[in-house]
């Protein structure tokens, strides 16, 4: 279980004692079965040392279900490492309340548990609780707690205290503390430089110089800095406010970009950009278009992009975004005009393209070429064009919508959605306002309309609250794509409990690949397979073969074979061999060998089965 072992090691403090001298005349390894039996007897007899040893043996073999009760006995006997191990296991399973409970059983006396508890609370958004436990763990001697606690102090701008604590952790050998301290010092030095340059521009009353003094703040390489140290967001906002006060309309937009990181200040940010537009900054219209698109406001986005393009001889990326909006709505002739208005249409099919069709231009230019190629592909594929039958049904649905209520409005919106008339569909979905209509609206805007996923979550929530498994799954998927594994896991669990197969599949994969917990994974794969999904049926069957449950594995692997899963025939053969049905096993090996010779080579010898040459 390498993944589980890694997670446990990451939660432990580094050992202070030197490695022991190697045993030059070691005892022969005991028989594994005999050793397991000995530890089981000792643990059952109530010997505290045996609790942990037996739990470690079972965990190492991937038998975590059997190990957990013995870890619990060890923890109840006062073993802090056991408490931490239990917490990690439950956290990996998405059982966050249980993880917190086990961390708390020893956090007051063990730095490792204090560290794990602090991280758990921080991931849940409880920064104050995290700070408390990092401080407590640091007092217990945990250098990791000292480092992470210092980072939280720096995140809210307590720079001097944070640097002192990082210096302490660095002196104790923590490389992360050393690197973090150096990064913060460089960051503060840069901050002083920006302040000084801005002060000079303020003294001269030069708006352009004021803006240029802060240009490096928007360097993409600094995004991680702002994510890790929110105080720097406030510092940047204040600097741009000063530059705007000198008269820089551009600075108003960049100030708004930092304000917009806080969803509660969205209206404030938008007002600043609108003010910059009124002051004559052409780029403000483009930013407003991007924001409208991310929020699913398609008509507003198109209006702002057109405004940006009309100003100052055209805006290449406003033209590009208009082209993409039109592609999504299957306004293909118009889309092509906007994309060619960027001036890069000559690159399509031009000489100088490489073997993969790429020319000597940058990634941004390549996006334009790909969009033009997508238009050609859509025109060539009737399945990607608006279906004629829905166009024919539209007048009748419109008539019923004008006379009816939410159901008729939603039906009309659905037809418009199928016809790629997205702005009109959005209006009718919003008018209907039912959980089903809002869910359809959220999916349309997120999957087709170009909206940002996290901003669409409120459209999915009403349906999820009513028990819609697909809506819960979609919310999990959005958070997973945004990098928030904890929230994703919570929503995937809700979806799986409501019967969503892909959510159960995700939970199984997470347990096995990220958590090293094959037993928990197998249960989720089985649940996923019940929904008719072939890959998790294979994964569940393979897991059962590996643990010798051949009878349970056979029906699942047959499902996978019927679904033409490329590896299933080999593992079905292994299950049949385990059941003593050698002739059947050989027949499935022939199937595997004939269809997938390259795949079979990776498995090596066929575990003692004779496999005649299929040729």
Explain what you see:
Residues 13-34 have a biased composition (Acidic residues). This is Tetratricopeptide repeat protein. Residues 1-36 are annotated as: Disordered. InterPro entries: Sel1-like, Sel1_AlgK, TPR-4. The protein is mainly α. Among the domains are: 2-15 and 30-141, Serine Threonine Protein Phosphatase 5, Tetratricopeptide repeat, CATH 1.25.40.10; 194-382, Alpha Horseshoe (Serine Threonine Protein Phosphatase 5, Tetratricopeptide repeat), CATH 1.25.40.10; 532-615. It is 72% helix and 0% strand. It has helices at 2-10, 32-44, 48-60, 64-76, 80-92, 96-104, 111-123, 127-139, 143-155, 159-171, 175-204, 207-212, 223-228, 230-246, 249-259, 266-278, 283-294, 298-310, 316-328, 332-340, 363-380, 388-403, 406-418, 422-432, 435-447, 453-465, 469-481, 485-497, 501-514, 518-529, 534-546, 550-562, 568-578, 582-595, 597-601. Helix 6 (96-104) packs antiparallel against helix 7, helix 9 runs parallel beside helix 11 and helix 20 runs antiparallel to helix 21 (363-380). It is globular, with a radius of gyration of 30 Å. Mean pLDDT is 89; it is low at 1-25, 346-361 and 606-615.
């Amino acid at each position: 279980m390498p993944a589980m072992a890694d997670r446990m090691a990451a939660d432990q403090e580094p050992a202070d004692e030197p490695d022991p001298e190697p045993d030059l005349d070691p005892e022969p390894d005991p028989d594994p079965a005999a050793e397991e039996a000995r530890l089981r007897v000792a643990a059952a007899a109530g010997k505290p040392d045996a609790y942990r040893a037996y739990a470690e043996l079972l965990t190492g073999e991937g038998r975590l279900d059997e190990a957990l009760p013995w870890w619990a006995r060890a923890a109840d006997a006062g073993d802090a490492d056991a408490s931490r191990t239990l917490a990690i296991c439950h956290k990996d399973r998405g059982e966050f309340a249980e993880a917190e409970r086990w961390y708390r059983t020893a956090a007051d006396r063990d730095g490792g548990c204090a560290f794990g508890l602090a991280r758990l609370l921080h991931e849940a958004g409880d920064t104050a609780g995290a700070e408390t436990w990092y401080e407590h763990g640091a007092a217990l001697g945990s250098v990791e707690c000292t480092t992470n606690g210092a980072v939280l102090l720096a995140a809210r701008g307590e720079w001097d205290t944070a640097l002192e604590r990082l210096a302490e952790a660095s002196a104790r050998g923590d490389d992360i503390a050393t690197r973090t301290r150096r990064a913060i010092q460089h960051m503060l030095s840069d901050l002083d430089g920006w302040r000084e340059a801005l002060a000079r521009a303020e003294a001269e009353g030069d708006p352009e110089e004021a803006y240029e003094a802060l240009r490096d703040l928007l360097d993409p390489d600094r995004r991680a800095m702002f994510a890790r140290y929110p105080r720097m967001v406030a510092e940047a906002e204040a600097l741009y406010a000063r530059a705007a006060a000198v008269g820089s309309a551009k600075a108003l937009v960049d100030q708004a970009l930092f304000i917009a990181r806080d969803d509660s200040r969205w209206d404030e940010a938008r007002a600043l950009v609108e003010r910059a537009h009124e002051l004559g900054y052409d780029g403000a219209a483009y930013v407003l278009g991007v924001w409208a698109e991310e929020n699913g406001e398609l008509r507003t986005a198109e209006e702002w992009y057109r405004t940006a393009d009309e100003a100052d001889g055209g805006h290449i990326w406003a033209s590009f975004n208009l082209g993409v909006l039109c592609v999504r709505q299957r306004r293909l002739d118009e889309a092509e005009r906007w994309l060619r208005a960027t001036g890069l249409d000559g690159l399509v099919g031009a000489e100088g393209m490489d073997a993969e069709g790429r020319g000597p231009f940058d990634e941004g230019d390549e996006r334009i070429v790909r969009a033009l190629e997508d238009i050609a592909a859509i025109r060539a594929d009737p399945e990607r064009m608006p279906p004629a039958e829905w166009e024919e049904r539209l007048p009748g649905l419109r008539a019923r919508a004008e006379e009816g209520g939410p159901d008729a409005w939603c039906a009309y919106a659905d037809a418009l959605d199928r016809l790629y008339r997205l702005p009109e569909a959005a209006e009718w979905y919003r008018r209907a306002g039912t959980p089903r209509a809002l869910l359809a609206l959220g999916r349309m805007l997120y999957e087709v309309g170009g909206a940002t996923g996290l901003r669409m979550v409120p459209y999915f929530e009403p349906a999820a609250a009513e028990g819609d498994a697909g809506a819960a799954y979609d919310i999990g998927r959005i958070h997973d794509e945004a990098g928030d594994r904890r929230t994703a896991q919570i929503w995937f669990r809700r979806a799986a409990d409501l019967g969503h197969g892909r959510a159960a599949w995700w939970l199984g994969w997470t347990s096995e690949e990220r958590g090293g917990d094959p037993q928990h994974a197998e249960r989720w794969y089985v649940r996923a397979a019940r929904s008719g999904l072939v890959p998790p049926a294979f994964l569940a069957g393979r897991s059962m073969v590996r643990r010798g449950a051949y009878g349970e594995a056979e029906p699942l692997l047959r499902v996978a074979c019927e679904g033409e899963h490329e590896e299933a025939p080999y593992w079905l053969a292994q299950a049949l061999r385990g059941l003593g049905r050698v002739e059947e096993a050989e027949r499935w090996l022939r199937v595997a060998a004939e269809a997938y010779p390259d795949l079979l080579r990776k498995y090596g010898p066929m575990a003692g089965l004779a496999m005649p040459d299929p040729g």
